[in-house]
Amino acid sequence: MSDCGCETDTARASTDPAYRRALWIVIILNLGFGVVELVGGFIANSQALKADSLDFIGDGSITLFGLIALGWTAVVRSRIALVQGLFLASLGFGVIGYAAWRAVVALPPEAELMGGIGIAALAVNVAAALVLARFRDQGDAASRAIWLFSRNDALANIAVIVAALLVGWTRQAWPDLVVAGVIALLFLHSAWDIIRDARRELAEHRRTPA
């Protein structure tokens, strides 16, 4: 998630209305589908879908708070980012813990529903990338990072689809749990990046005279 960079691209978002509108569309896509996928994860009994839904919700919320905080001081934005990183880390650990518990009492998820939602999630990520396509080659590092972020999300969606195929083939729950664990680890990696960057920014603020 932190690879996206859109939550810290405050200068561009505040001066380019078209880019800001594009980010709002991406926020709505991420938060809206994240809720849909979370519900679908419970219905399909899929831990991978639940983990992927948290990724969607985390992406959308981080970018949302970044845009809302445009007029706030840099110190406040850094503190908010630190809290966001800690919250995302707690979600990641929660997914891993819940997946480990489910491994003991695992029941295979509904493979067809799981695969269908995985395909829909991939379509949402492609749509978000298309919305941001016009900003890709404008020399902005954050914009280029968004594409790397979208690529990682797409890979996670493909992993969910593959897991659904394996669940349908093996009639076992382990492919779903493995993918959930991998997505949770990516979640923790993103949270760590956010926490590290926020702490570095706060340290720089303390060193800089008022």
Describe this structure in words.
The protein is mainly α and 210 residues long. Helices cover 82% and strands 0% of the residues. It is built from 7 helices and no strands. It has helices spanning 10-15, 17-44, 47-68, 74-104, 111-131, 141-170, 174-207. Helix 2 runs antiparallel to helix 3, helix 2 (17-44) runs antiparallel to helix 5 and helix 3 runs antiparallel to helix 6 (141-170). It is globular, with a radius of gyration of 18 Å.
How does the overall form come out from the CA principal axes? globular
Distance between the termini: 31 Å
Could you tell me the CATH topology label: Alpha-lytic protease prodomain-like
Mean pLDDT: 77
Order of helices and strands: HHHHHHH
Kindly provide the name of the CATH class. Mainly Alpha
Number of helices: 7
Q: Uncertain spans, ≥5 residues at pLDDT below 50?
A: 1-8, 139-143
Helix fraction, binned, reads over 70%
Number of strands: 0
Secondary-structure arrangement, i.e. CATH architecture: Up-down Bundle
- Largest sheet entry: none
- Domain module count: 1
Radius of gyration, rounded?
18 Å
Q: What structural class do you assign from the helix and strand content? A: mainly alpha
- The portion of residues forming beta strands comes to under 5%
